[in-house]
Write a structure and sequence with these properties.
Its main location: cytoplasm. The protein is α+β, with helices and mostly antiparallel strands and about 270 residues long. The chain has 13 helices and 4 strands. Helix 8 crosses helix 10 (about 195-205).
Length: about 270
């Protein structure tokens, strides 16, 4: 038998019940009133266990409601959150059921909301979004339902924006190499070949020959310096090989060497 030594207010709608053993129980206001718990009251072990069980559910439910107040959550996110907060396993299941009854937890609605948000705020394609939803514990049918809202027209627009951004990042590459890297970038972002092709068709990237030649000059000069210890023939071959490997235009590579020859003559 133990005695309640004091009852203090905790965060939110919770209270702490202090026992004579030094143990403290966290309960909701509803449990406090329902169990008629008062300072100085004697409580049996059975009553303490009952209070703990009621407290676990009430506290877990209130925590979940607070957790959901910031944004929608998947069922797995709620269960993981309750586990982290040390809510009893049987209460976690009850809380999920209660939240579903309150229409606050629905993986299908979560999937739709998540996909719509990613469409507006990210440069990710369907495949990458699908992977993210799987990590959040959604069933395949709920994932596919959400992805139906990501129409191919919208995928193309997102892919175009991502491609233009990536193309600027690869401006120091050869035009051909840059195109390949942008395509790979879009695939890694989760877009399929059809969407990538449509995006490229609409963008119609054009090679800036002056920019390409300037890149060749910089890369060629870097390779020329790198192989300065070789004899002239081997040095020439190494530089040519390096430029061809980077997929620069052969005619422009030739132009670079013609310029280099003039430079050396001077």
């Amino acid at each position: 038998m133990e005695t309640i030594t004091k009852i203090t207010k905790d965060k939110g709608q919770f209270y702490l019940i202090w026992l004579s053993s030094g143990e403290k129980l966290r309960v909701s206001e509803d449990t406090l009133v329902r169990q008629r718990l008062l300072k100085g009251q004697e409580v049996t072990e059975a009553m303490i266990e009952q209070i703990k069980k009621a407290g676990s559910y009430d506290v877990g439910l209130q925590m979940s409601l607070n957790y959901l107040s910031y944004q929608l959550r998947s069922t797995k996110e709620i269960l993981d959150y309750l586990k982290e907060k040390e809510i009893l396993p049987e209460d976690r299941k009850k809380i999920v059921i209660r939240l579903e009854e309150m229409n606050l937890l629905d993986d299908k609605s979560y999937s739709e909301s998540f996909v719509r948000t990613m469409m507006r705020t990210s440069d990710k394609g369907p495949k990458m979004i699908e992977q993210q939803l799987k990590r959040k514990g959604l069933k395949d049918e709920d994932i596919q339902y959400g992805l139906t809202f990501y129409l191919i027209e919208e995928q193309v627009e997102v892919a175009k924006a991502a491609a233009e951004k990536a193309m600027r990042r690869y401006r120091t590459k050869s035009f051909k190499d840059a195109l390949q890297k942008v395509q790979l970038h879009l695939m890694q972002k989760g877009f399929n070949r059809e969407v990538i092709d449509l995006a490229f068709e609409e963008l119609a990237f054009e090679k800036d020959e002056e920019q390409e030649l300037e890149v060749i000059r910089k890369e060629g000069d870097r390779l020329w310096e790198k192989h300065r210890k070789l004899d002239s023939y081997k040095r020439l071959m190494k530089v040519k090989q390096g430029l061809f490997q980077k997929q620069f235009d052969p005619d422009m590579i030739q132009q670079y060497f013609e310029e280099k020859e003039i430079e050396n003559e001077e």
